[in-house]
Amino acid sequence: MTIQRPRSEQLYAEALEHIVGGVNSPSRSFKAVGGGAPVFMKRAQGAHFWDVDDNRYIDYLCAYGPIITGHAHPHITEAITRAAANGTLYGTPTELEITLARMLKEAIPSMDKVRFVNSGTEAVMTTIRVARAYTKRSKIIKFAGCYHGHSDLVLVAAGSGPSTLGIPDSAGVPVSIANEVITVPFNDLEALSVALETFGDDVAAVMVEPIVGNFGMVMPEPGFLEGLCRMTREAGALVIYDEVISAFRFHYGSAQTYSAFPDHAATRPDLTALGKIIGGGLPIGAYGGRKHVMEQVAPLGPAYQAGTMAGNPASISAGIACLEVLQQPGVYERMDAQAIELASALQGSADKHGIPLTINRIRGSFSAHFCDHPVTNYDEAQDTDGERFAEFFRLMLDQGICLAPSKYEAWFLTTAHTSEDIAATIAAAERAFAQMAR
Ligand code: PMP
């Protein structure tokens, strides 16, 4: 049985008239999976979506990460309702901000001081400004395939090697800005060392997703983060972790406090950028780090950053409520168990039908790459079969399973997925792989 979506098609045609590309973020378009109308959703509850044609879907997109407790979780909804009833925006400090800042600091001890902003993009962008202000240097080293939002500096792709400067990845990013960025392959300490040798005295910061979520889920190889932190410090630069996806995704804490990196002192960043989960589904971002570094920020220091909406009571209340849900015992273990079951069934099904599939699972989330080689860096993630992914994506969508429309995005489990959801997804995937093998 294939789901029909006439109303989504109608709305997409209408949206194209008014909204550029019909979507308010390019990742929502179906361009990477053969085009056509994206699904217009009208309601979400728990692990499920309903579209405008009243079709139901099991959600693994989870809004690209923030929805870890499922949609409309009663504890979060109640917190948002309470905040709305008390006024949504004050332009003054509130006690709520202190509560969430405390919760973040307790979970991520490298953050002595925190500042709330409105998105992951803003958080990352500001960490770069703060690092530049602190070091009085201007260049940034980043890793190919890591996404850090849409600010100018991080929309720069690799030059032809670690000792070359970047080229703009988007029209509108000046070459002069791309000249401030060096891109090296993830998991490649040698390339980082060449980049630091070449540009070391000018480098303000090395920016990394310590566990990658943007070219699939990719773990750093043993020693990579330790080496990165050591080499960066030796060069007099700061380490910035972009934990917009990874914070609170794998455990109650962030990648820098994850048990896979037991030597926390050796993998501790100077600055951390946060977003997504910490807002419980409302717009948020935050950054924080060492006291001396954070004291660069206005009103204490010369690095300016501000926000009319920053720290608004609704986002902060939703964030506190979301973290409270995640503090409950067994929450992460349950997501892990479901991800293990789902990922191993997908692998088994693909193997049975002779379809090469590499699954990178990190606790309750994973990425499924159509290839027969490991995926440990962006080149390997690119070298996967996008057409196969597109076919799989559509076969799943037509059976009511909602994945992100890109071969690079992860599947996210939530506290709301049930064993019935997992079983239904496994059955749908088996039918999809069987069809693809024909
Ligand atoms: N950093 C990372 C690691 C991200 O995954 C994203 C968003 N996908 C961002 C930054 C940007 O966050 P936002 O979309 O909230 O601006």
From TrEMBL:
Pathway: Porphyrin-containing compound metabolism; protoporphyrin-IX biosynthesis; 5-aminolevulinate from L-glutamyl-tRNA(Glu): step 2/2. Its cofactor is pyridoxal 5'-phosphate. It holds the Pfam family Aminotran_3. It is found in: Cytoplasm. Keywords: Cytoplasm, Isomerase, Porphyrin biosynthesis, Pyridoxal phosphate. The keyword Lipid metabolism does not apply. InterPro entries: 4pyrrol_synth_GluAld_NH2Trfase, Aminotrans_3, PyrdxlP-dep_Trfase, PyrdxlP-dep_Trfase_major, PyrdxlP-dep_Trfase_small. Belongs to the class-III pyridoxal-phosphate-dependent aminotransferase family. HemL subfamily. Homodimer. PANTHER family: GLUTAMATE-1-SEMIALDEHYDE 2,1-AMINOMUTASE, GLUTAMATE-1-SEMIALDEHYDE 2,1-AMINOMUTASE 2. This is Glutamate-1-semialdehyde 2,1-aminomutase.
